[in-house]
Amino acid sequence: MARARRRDTARRRLQVHNAIAEQVSAGADITVSSIARAARVHRSFIHRHPDLHAAVLAAAAVPAELQPTTAQTSVASLRADLLNIRAHNTRLQQHVRALEHRLPESLGQAVYRDSGLGAPDDIRGLQETLTDREQQLLELRRKLEEREDELAAARAANRELMTQLNTRC
Questions:
Q1: Whole-number Å distance between alpha carbons of 163 and 21
Q2: Dist. CA 132–CA 141, nearest whole Å
C-alpha cells in the first residue's frame, strides 16, 4: 500500500513538473492554481510539497521575455490564421468598393457646386423652405376663404330668421 502511494505521489509530482514546463514554454501566466489545473492535481498537493511550491514560484518569478519559447505552429493554427486574413481581406475589399462608389458622387457634386451651375447648398435650402412656406400660405388662404363663405352664409341665415321673427310679432 505504501509503495502504491509513493508511485501515485511520484506520478503526480511528474505531472506538476510537466505542467510547469508546458506553461513556461507556452508563455502563460504561472500560478499555483493554473499549474494544479494543468497537472490535474489539487492545489494543496503543490502546497504540501515545498520543492514543488518553490518550483512553481520560481517559474512564476521569471519574466515572460526570459522564458524560453518554442516556435512550434500547427497546421490547424496556420489554416485558422489564413481564414482570418482572407475574411479581413474580403472586408477591406468591400470597404474599398464602397469608397470607390462614393468618390465619383462626391467629386461630381463638388464640380457642380464649384462650376456655379447649381445654387449653393444654403440658397437651395432657403429656396426649398420658401416654397414650403408659400404652399402653406396658399392652403391657409383657401381655408380662410372657406370660413369666410361659411360665416357669410351663417349671417345671411341669421338675418332671415330675425326678419321672420320680427314680422310675426
A1: 117
A2: 14
**Rounded-to-integer distance, Cα 69 and Cα 24, Å:** 8
Would you give the distance in Å from CA 49 to the centre of its chain?
49
Other beta carbons within 10 angstroms of residue 9's beta carbon come to 13
- CA dihedral 101→102→105→109, nearest 10 degrees, is -170
d(CA 104, CA 70): 51
* pLDDT class of 112 with cuts at 50, 70, 90: confident
What are the two backbone dihedrals, phi and then psi, of residue 68, each rounded to the nearest 5 degrees?
A: -70, 140
C-alpha cell at 124: 437651395
**Confidence check: pLDDT of 75 > 90:** no
Between 165 and 68, the more confident residue is 165
pTM (2 d.p.): 0.39
Confidence of residue 120 (pLDDT cuts 50, 70, 90): low
Helix H segments across 28-74?
A: 32-39, 43-48, 50-61
| Whole-number Å distance between alpha carbons of 160 and 153 | 11
Q: For residue 70, which of 28, 100, 99, 30 has the smallest C-alpha distance? A: 28
H-state helical runs in the chain: 2-26, 32-39, 43-48, 50-61, 75-115, 121-168
